[in-house]
Amino acid sequence: MAEESLVIVPERTAPRRLSRIASGVLRWGALLLLAAVIVIPVLYAALGGFKDNFQLSASPVALPDPWVVSNYVEVLTSESFWQQLGNSVLIAAITTALVVGFAAMAAFVFARRTFRGREVMFTIFTLGLLFPSAVAILPLFILVRSIGLLDNPLGIALPQAAFALPLTIIILRPFFQSIPAELEDAAAIDGCGSFGFFWRILLPLSRPALATVAVLAIVTSWNSFLLPLVILSDQANWTLPLGVTNFSTQYSSDTARILAYTTLSLVPALVFYLIAERQLVGGLTSGGIKG
Q1: Would you say the C-alpha torsion 199, 202, 289, 113 has a positive or negative sign?
Q2: How far apart are CA 128 and CA 216, in angstroms?
Q3: CATH class (in words) of the domain with range 77-286
Q4: 28 CB contacts (<8 Å, ≥6 apart)?
Q5: How far apart are CA 230 and CA 159, in angstroms?
Q6: DSSP at 64
Q7: What is d(CA 130, CA 150) in angstroms, rounded to the nearest whole number?
Q8: Residue 133 class from Cβ within 10 Å (0-12 exposed, 13-18 middle, 19+ buried)?
Q9: Alpha-carbon dihedral of residues 280, 285, 289, 291, nearest 10 degrees?
Q10: How far is the C-alpha of 48 from the C-alpha of 64, rounded, in Å?
Q11: How far apart are CA 219 and CA 92, in angstroms?
């Protein structure tokens, strides 16, 4: 019987092993294909910035020969680039702080407190996802102008934060609900109030979710184009998306310089992704609840 079992087990496990290998190959193939779709355009733009226009037209996919660094040097020594970069960072920071702060407090109430009309109010928040910001661009312009926030970072950050709140609350609420009620009861016994539990216990345990919504808020603010285009008329207050558009119009015949400007405008967002990924992984490993 023992010998028969030794013969049968390999016959049964071989198809399973082959299926696991096949599924692994398909999974890695799909991931590599997706990575190629994302990386190749960025790599093409980065290398294109090291070429001149003749190289781009003669050999668009070849390596630069010679390497032309003047395109990047001219952009980096441009005062307008750094000014637009600072404006984008400032608006993204304000937007993220408002979104994460207010959404965390609202999600805490919706997740940990019971009151009449709670689900109705939460449904109203979710309906905000059905209202695109582009539809409200004219009322937003009139409202921002009436309160004197044209050509002001707050005129961009406040509407962006308002439109980002529904999705952020929807993401945070289930995460807050998953934290055991026993932790809150133990904190109450130790004399910790609602705000103390929220600040000292809930938020540290929710670092993965907070990192996720922070990434979404920053990326959305960084890529915003229509709202800054309408609100910001002074070039000194322009953000990077507006600067890239103006630069591509001003130097429409100099494709290599446009690629260099576009690549440098992507660098801050890529650096933030690397930092946020580390924070996200750190929160997942240290923010778990051991029972």
Answers
A1: positive
A2: 16
A3: mainly alpha
A4: none
A5: 12
A6: P
A7: 26
A8: middle
A9: 160
A10: 8
A11: 8
Q: In sequence order, what are the residues at sequence separation of 6 or more whose Cβ sits closer than 8 angstroms to the Cβ of residue 36?
A: none
Give the Cα separation of 236 and 252 in Å (integer). 22
Largest separation between any pair of C-alpha atoms in the chain: 88
> Whole-structure pTM over 0.70, yes or no?
yes
Neighbouring C-beta atoms of residue 41, cutoff 10 Å: 10
The 10 Å Cβ neighbour count of residue 127 is 10
Measured CA to CA, the distance from residue 103 to residue 171 in angstroms comes to: 10
Nearest to 221 by CA among 86, 88, 131: 88
**Is the bond preceding residue 228 a cis peptide, omega within 30 degrees?**
no
* Mean pLDDT, residues 167-179: 90
Residue 283's pLDDT is 46
**Residue 50 structure tokens:** 């090291």
The sign one gets for the Cα dihedral 90, 265, 281, 173 is: positive
pLDDT > 90: what percent of the chain? 39
Least confident of 8-12, 66-70, 72-76, 198-202: 8-12
Domain boundaries, the chain: 2-48, 77-286
The one-character DSSP state at 289 is -
What is the per-residue pLDDT across 114-164, written as a single tens digit (0 to 9) for each?
A: 889 899 999 988 888 888 888 889 999 999 999 999 999 999 999 999 999
Find where tokens 């999974």 sit.
27
Tokens of 289: 């609840």
Please enumerate in sequence order all residues whose Cβ is within 8 A of that of 194, keeping only pairs 6 or more positions apart, or say none: none
Helix, strand and coil content of the chain, in percent to the nearest 5, comes to: 80, 0, 20
What integer is the mean pLDDT of 62-80? 89
Closest alpha carbon to 219 in 61, 88, 126, 55: 88
